[in-house]
Write a structure and sequence with these properties.
The chain has 331 residues and is an alpha/beta fold. The chain has 2 domains: 152 residues, Medium-chain alcohol dehydrogenases, catalytic domain (Quinone Oxidoreductase, Chain A, domain 1, Alpha-Beta Complex), CATH 3.90.180; 142 residues, NAD(P)-binding Rossmann-like Domain (Rossmann fold), CATH 3.40.50.720. Helices cover 31% and strands 24% of the residues. The protein has 11 helices and 15 strands. The protein is globular, with a radius of gyration of 20 Å.
């Protein structure tokens, strides 16, 4: 089968398309013909050798996908061959076929069409992370104010959309007009350009001096301290990721002075440690997706040969919404 292959740790441009043996599902596993594979920040970290898990070479990156089951391993009662599924794997989704644990894939309705299958394949990590963050970690309540940093990216737009669904007042912070417009299209109440205006003064004006109740931060870097200083009494600062590259060192006295909390969000380990809670979250999200209540934004589709360009766009923070790899798409 064709796959995007990583043969040494490095930048995305070290990847190439090559033939790998068709993977055989082991006990408790399934093999899926990939319809789309989502492009996510951990994929780039894994290629660089900076992720907490390092596969043996050669391997295909990619942890999130949708497609059709083509084979099942010993002991698998469900899904069945021919089922349309969405799921996650440790790696391997940037390929024509991927093997995953049967417990990490979810069967979609039989009448799921290709467009819905594509949306589902771009959905789990971003919306799963954001729903876990806002519902489980922040325990967000209707009427609270949510500040979303990096609001034009995949997890940021998901947080905007879910925040509005939870009855929050959403302020979307993004560096480009296209990203701010994308956030508005998903329900943001206001937007902030934190590169071109006094960020803290703007937030103070938007909140009547009270500060925000929740900060959703997948970005890190230099903007983090300003955002933390804009948190109000009993606010919660959600540490989701570090897309800007820098891990901020935040002054602990700010937490004390405002009775606020710094809260870590690690969706991947939540999936592993609390599978039943994650399954309930996922069922709710997929039901909303099916109803059309959630609208993931896929801005670009890439064939396997252009996977390095997709990862570069993600690392350069050029992407609006989600990017996906389409293994069946011609070059």
């Amino acid at each position: 089968m064709k796959a995007v292959v990583c043969e040494a740790w490095g930048a995305p441009d070290t990847l190439r398309v090559a033939d790998l043996p068709l993977p055989v599902p082991g006990p408790g596993q399934v093999r899926v013909r990939v319809h789309v594979a989502a492009v996510n920040f951990p994929d780039a970290l894994m290629v660089a050798g900076k992720y907490q898990f390092r596969p043996d070479f050669p391997f295909a990156p990619g942890a999130e996908f949708s497609g059709t089951v083509t084979a099942i391993g010993e002991g698998v009662a469900a899904p069945n061959v021919g089922d349309k599924v969405v799921g996650s794997a440790a790696f391997g989704a940037y390929a024509e076929e991927v093997v995953a644990e049967a417990g990490h894939v979810i069967v979609l309705p039989d009448d799921t069409d290709d467009a819905e299958l594509e949306l589902a394949g771009s959905f789990l990590l971003t919306y799963g992370t954001s729903w876990h963050a806002l519902k489980d970690r922040a325990e967000a309540r209707p009427g609270e104010t949510l500040l979303v940093l990096g609001a034009g990216g995949g997890v940021g737009l998901a947080a905007v959309e879910l925040g509005k669904r939870m009855g929050l007042h959403v302020i979307a912070a993004a560096a480009s007009e296209a990203k701010r417009q994308a956030a508005l299209s998903r329900g943001a109440d206001e937007t902030v350009d934190y590169t071109a205006e006094d960020f803290r003064e703007r937030l103070k004006a938007l909140t009547g001096g009270r500060g925000v109740d929740i900060v959703y931060d997948p970005v890190g870097g230099d903007i983090a301290e300003s955002a933390l200083r804009s948190v109000g009494w009993r606010g919660r600062y959600l540490v989701v990721g570090f897309a800007a590259g820098g891990i901020p060192k935040l002054p602990a006295n700010l937490l004390l002075l405002k009775g606020s909390a710094l809260v870590g969000v690690f969706w991947g380990d939540f999936v592993r440690r609390e599978p039943e809670a994650n399954a309930a979250n996922t069922r709710q999200l997929l039901a909303w997706l099916r109803e059309g209540a959630l609208r993931p934004l896929i801005s670009r589709r890439y064939p396997l040969s252009q996977a390095p360009a997709a990862l570069e766009a993600l690392l350069g923070r050029e992407a609006v919404g989600k990017l996906v790899i389409v293994p069946q798409q011609p070059d």
